[in-house]
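Researcher: Re-running this chain for the archive, since the previous output was lost when a drive failed. Same request as before.
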Amino acid sequence: MDGYIGNYDGTQKIIDAKGNLVGTFTGKEYLDFISERVQPWTYLKFPYQKKLGDWKGIVEGPDTNCYAVGPMALFNLVKGMDTPKAQKHFEKYHAAFGGKPVHNILACATHAVTGAQVPVQIDVFDSKGGLYKTLTNF
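Model: Regenerated structure tokens:
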């Protein structure tokens, strides 16, 4: 949708932790960009971005090659939302956290605005579970 939110189909886009474009690919090219790592202590697989180097472990920060999917990742990739009210919250979200890319789970709540368009209050917590910020007056 010309850089705006889309919930299905299309080319996949990958950015690094700083927001720089790593590449784009279609489903057939998935294995050129993504690999998985198995750990002996779990049945889970840990996907990572191959274009950013070999497996570095579960680390955060600008040098990680772990990646996110879902609403937060989508908010870091698109330039806007598809409804006026959702666009307002999209802009407020990025302003509240200093621009793109944002590494905060609030995107999940803001993404719901596209469909529901009726949020009242969103509490944002820091990594230790303490209240970081409360966004109201939507």
